[in-house]
TrEMBL record:
It comes from Tateyamaria armeniaca. The keyword Ribonucleoprotein does not apply. This is DNA mismatch repair protein MutS. PROSITE patterns: DNA_MISMATCH_REPAIR_2 (PS00486). CDD domains: ABC_MutS1. SMART domains: MUTSac, MUTSd. Belongs to the DNA mismatch repair MutS family. ATP binds at G627, P628, N629, M630, A631, G632, K633, S634. The gene is mutS.
Length: 876
């Protein structure tokens, strides 16, 4: 069967976008056909039907309503699909002008991919949605990333080996790579669950990229923004090329690229981020993370800034000091801080509103959001004080300069407009006389006609004159036949034009009535068109001021983050840290912020604070931490790393005192996990992560290691842990916390100058162990593993047998010379020793009495007597 013109159009458009589901606009629906329909119906759990035939077979079809398409788009994107949105480029009426069988013109207006979302309903307000690209030019590599929903644009030169840690930091939604590099880069990206998109190698050409970037920012050269190498230009140019493809040439409003360097931020690898749960908990969401615990921001932009800062703490002393001084100022003036936070609560997400407007996907509410945000910025500017620290002085100075734009938006827009431009009603009355008249005709057409009827009745002196309407004649003037001659006499006949005579009435029209009819019928669409013109005018004013608005938005985010951290410091009783360029690490009364919050929410015991001192200028400074399981060693390790991150983020910290020499890197090897998909056991993952630490850590790093070597045989594990500690001390010379159950290693404290023993204390009481969670200098002599196993609920027979084995092994060690083989033979561990039988329960007198009773034979009196007997029997 021949293909219909509409289906031919569909197939042609689909052929141009083979890698995407095609949302083909059909009136109020987006429809999908063939394999797209089959795949979409399964992914969206919607009905799969059919429409017509192609080559003799039924054509599968499914569809989603246009008004609710965003929700379906989000589902498809999360399931790994890309969607090409195909819109009608003309109305059916316009198509018919070319012929009755002409197909409405359609074309793809955008490709929806994970990294190019801007719709409010498709994004998390408090998180960035980065699109990244990596480029290699000869021996150099660069990573560029952009968030088109906010305009943020960054680039960084790096080694390919550093790509994984940076992807872990940024967590982009999509990575663009050259098709020739896909084989190498896809495994790295997929380690972090980031979908990969390929472009031809030409898209990464630095010369072409330079041209695209200069055109985008309307400059002759990028020198004003920094000195970029060819790899950086190639990565940025590829991003712009990809945006031109997906947005069909309608590029978003991007800020000039910001060049980042790894030397200015603390380096944190992917394993450490995961172990410390910086921005995501073990479940993958924010719950249980450091970010969730410390986020007291009240604006979306402030929350995104906090996540960026936590993900990449600064190692520039001046930057960190300015941030901490700003927080300290707000801590000292809580009235000011709370006034600012109250005003900030009314600040909308101006960055994303700007982005939607720049891509023609915005609406009236984006304009009013910007009006509200700039108005609140103006209000906050009035809170400026003369003694502001440097950071706040700059931020508050960027809040003003929008008076004319605010006044224009306030005068022209209603308070609460509808969502879409096509809905109208967003331009305020009095802004445009023509619009007001069109609205009056649209809304008050009957009263206008009634007034005209009254005027005509007075002019003709025919009080029975009526203006009526029908679908054939439209509006007309009707009088009875007795007045017809009067209406057709000169001079009235020059005004009133005869149209129709019936048995009892005569109908007329006038030029004014015909004109009014046309205006009434077109008033609705005319009003919309006038409002659209005003929308475009106001949007133009906003986009012209976009750089200044973005600057104000960044200032508001900075103020929000600063006051949020101040509020956190006051409510949680955190202290102001001292930072310098030494190698000091002195924490007094340190606490784990996430664990402390969880204990408080559960109404449990208070968190036990602990000190940590790792001070050494020329040598390593390592605490070798021993003690039982469940005593809190891992918590102690993590809390000191988190305190460091918070301090270099620019925050107060959960401690009574903190003096930290700037840390360059943070490494963590805590917790057990495997990677079976890549053939890695738990021990193999542990060794890979440990190798990365020993190969990269420098003398400014902070390293926390927990239970190195536990996944293999005892002597293997001990030897690996021993050698690792020596390497950290002799080669890396890092500040480190090293937790272990190998008590033999405590002897290293006497051998290595930079190693000091510490232990987590416990107390034994009547055969049970009580965890005190206190860290003190010294070494533990045992791990209390059997006691912990008992707390976990192992059967009593297992616990008893474990004690026998443990006593035999420990006595063998004390006596010396007893080999493991001898100990095993002597126990004997593998003899057929039966497990202790469960103790036989003593017969219960009450149960014996009950067994002798026949309930049907009991009288009420007998039953009462029985209760007393049972009570006496229970006492026995």
């Amino acid at each position: 069967m021949s293909t219909t013109p509409m289906m031919a159009q569909y197939l042609e458009i689909k052929a141009a976008h083979p890698g995407a589901l095609l949302f083909y606009r059909m009136g109020d629906f987006y429809e999908m056909f063939f394999d797209d329909a089959v795949n979409a119906a399964a992914a969206l759990d919607i009905a799969l039907t059919k429409r017509g035939k192609h080559d003799g077979d039924d054509i599968p079809m499914c569809g989603v309503p246009v008004h609710s398409a965003e929700g379906y788009l989000l589902t498809l994107i999360r399931k790994g699909f890309r969607v090409a949105v195909c819109e009608q480029m003309e109305s059916p009426a316009e198509a018919k002008k070319r012929g009755s069988k002409s197909v409405v013109k359609r074309d793809v207006v955008r490709l929806v991919t994970p990294g190019t979302l801007i719709e409010e309903s498709l994004l998390e307000a408090r998180r960035h949605n980065f699109l990244a690209a990596v480029a290699e030019v000869r021996d150099k590599c660069a990573l560029a990333w952009v968030d088109i929903s906010t305009g943020a644009f960054h680039v960084m030169a790096l080694d390919l080996a550093q790509l994984g840690p940076e992807l872990a930091r940024l967590a982009p939604s999509e990575l663009v790579v050259a098709d020739t590099k896909e084989e190498v880069l896809r495994p790295i990206s997929e380690d972090f669950g980031i979908p990969v998109t390929t472009l031809g190698l030409a898209a990464f050409d630095s010369a072409a990229g330079m041209g695209r970037l200069c055109d985008l920012f309307r400059v002759a050269t990028l020198d004003a923004y920094g000195s970029f190498d060819r790899a950086e230009v190639g990565a940025m140019g590829a991003l712009v090329e990809y945006l031109e493809i997906t947005q069909k040439g309608n590029l978003p409003l991007l800020r000039p690229p910001l060049q980042e360097t790894q030397s200015k931020t603390v380096q944190i690898d992917a394993a450490t981020r995961r172990n410390l749960e910086l921005t995501a908990g073990l479940s993958g969401g924010r719950a249980g993370s450091l970010l969730e615990t410390v986020d007291k921001t009240v604006t979306a932009a402030g929350a995104r800034l906090l996540e960026r800062r936590l993900s990449s703490p600064s190692r520039v002393l001046e930057t960190v000091s300015n941030r901490i001084d700003a927080v300290s100022f707000c801590v000292s003036d809580q009235d000011f801080c709370q006034s600012v936070r109250t005003a900030l609560r009314s600040v909308p997400d101006m960055d994303r509103a700007l982005s939607r407007l720049s891509l023609d996907r915005g609406g009236p509410r984006d304009l009013t959001a910007l009006r509200a945000g700039l108005t609140q910025a103006q209000t906050l500017a009035g809170l400026t004080q003369t003694e502001f620290p440097t950071l706040l002085t700059g931020a508050f100075g960027d809040l003003t300069g929008h008076d004319a734009l605010i006044d224009q938006l306030a005068a022209d827009l209603v308070a609460e407009p509808l969502l879409l431009v096509r809905d109208g009603g967003f331009i305020a009355s009095g802004c445009d006389a023509e619009l007001d008249e069109a609205r009056k005709l649209r809304d008050e057409g009957r009263s206008v006609i009634a007034q005209l009827q009254q005027d005509y009745a007075k002019t003709t002196a025919v009080q029975s004159l009526k203006i009526k309407y029908n679908n054939v004649l439209g509006y007309f003037i009707e009088v009875t036949a007795t007045h017809a001659d009067k209406m057709m006499s000169v001079p009235l006949s020059e005004t009133f034009i005869h149209r129709q005579t019936t048995a009892n009435q005569v109908r007329f029209t006038t030029v004014d009535l015909s004109s009014l009819e046309t205006r009434i019928l077109n008033a609705g669409s005319q009003a919309i068109e006038i409002e659209k013109r005003h929308y475009e005018r106001l949007k133009g004013l906003v986009l012209d001021a976009a750089p200044q608005i973005s600057q104000t938005s960044r200032a508001l985010a900075e103020i929000d983050l600063t006051t949020g951290l101040a509020h956190l410091a006051v409510t949680e009783n955190w202290c102001k840290p001292t930072l310098d360029t030494s190698r000091t690490f002195d924490i007094a009364g340190g606490r784990h912020p996430v664990v402390e919050r969880a204990l408080r929410q559960q109404g449990g015991d208070p968190f036990i604070a602990n000190d940590c001192v790792l001070n050494a200028e020329d040598t390593a400074a390592i605490w070798l931490l021993t003690g039982p399981n469940m005593a809190g060693k891992s918590t102690f390790l993590r809390q000191n790393a988190l305190i460091t991150i918070l301090a270099q983020t620019g925050s107060f910290v959960p401690a009574t005192h903190a003096h930290i020499g700037l840390v360059s890197q943070i490494f963590s090897r805590v917790g057990a996990s495997d990677d079976l998909a890549r053939g890695r056991s738990t021990f193999m993952v542990e060794m890979v992560e440990t190798a990365a630490i020993l190969n990269q850590a420098d003398d400014r790093a902070l390293v926390i290691l927990d239970e190195i070597g536990r996944g293999t045989a005892t002597y293997d594990g001990l030897s690996i842990a021993w050698a690792t500690l020596e390497h950290l001390h002799d080669v890396n010379k890092s500040r480190a916390l090293f937790a272990t159950h190998y008590h033999e290693m405590t002897a290293l404290a006497a051998k290595l100058d930079g190693v000091e023993n510490a232990t987590v204390t416990v107390k034994e009481w009547e055969g049970e162990v009580i965890f005190l969670h206190e860290v003190r200098r010294g070494a533990a002599d045992r791990s209390y593993g059997v006691q912990v196993a008992q707390l976990a609920g192992l059967p009593s027979a297992v616990i008893a047998r474990a004690r026998v084995v443990l006593d035999a092994l420990e006595s063998g060690e004390r006596e010396g010379g007893a080999t493991q083989k001898t100990l095993i033979d002597d126990l004997p561990l593998f003899s057929a020793t039966p497990a202790p039988a469960p103790a036989k329960l003593k017969p219960s007198p009450a149960l014996e009495l009950l067994e002798a009773i026949h309930p049907d034979d009991l009288s009420p009196r007998d039953a009462l007597d029985l209760i007393y007997k049972l009570k006496d029997a229970a006492k026995d």
